[in-house]
Write a structure and sequence with these properties.
Blueprint lengths: L5 H38 L6 H4 L1 E5 L14 H11 L8 E5 L4 H5 L11 H6 L1 H13 L7
Length: 144
């Protein structure tokens, strides 16, 4: 039997636990998604930077990709970071690239990325997830 106020205390503790768990889910989703997107962007071959700068992040629905030269990937990663800042568990994240030759790059038409960018990065998803989860359990965030 629950004593006086016991049910209310349990509800408060349960609410606090749910908020903490949800926050961790959101943090996991943000960190995992950023790292996966970062790998895709940084593996994108660079001649003039349009392919690397062509990645367009969005939440909820895909946006038309932009075309800008970004050979270092810095501006593209900053856009991804801003987009992911509002990312919550259960939302959909899109990373679209509409550069005309992106399919060829993904399928080995560049010596810089003979195995592609997306497929290679997705194959690493389990390792990314383990790294992010371990960092969150340790109380920190995963390395970028």
């Amino acid at each position: 039997m629950v004593g006086p106020g016991g049910a209310a205390q349990f509800t408060v503790k349960l609410d606090a636990w749910l908020k903490k768990a949800t926050g961790r889910q959101d943090a996991f989703c943000r960190q995992f998604t950023f790292e996966l997107a970062r790998r895709i962007v940084m593996r994108t071959p660079v001649r003039v930077g349009f392919a690397r700068g062509g990645w367009q992040p969005s939440l909820g629905h895909p946006l038309a990709a932009n075309r800008r030269g970004d050979p270092t990937g810095t501006a593209t990663l900053a856009d991804i970071g801003v987009t992911i800042a509002g990312f919550r568990a259960g939302q959909k994240f899109y990373l679209l690239n509409s550069v005309a030759y992106i399919w060829r790059l993904e399928h080995g038409h560049s010596r810089q990325a003979p195995h592609g960018m997306v497929r290679t990065s997705i194959a690493e998803a389990p390792d990314i997830a383990r790294t992010v989860l371990a960092a969150l359990k340790a109380g920190g965030s995963a390395p970028p």
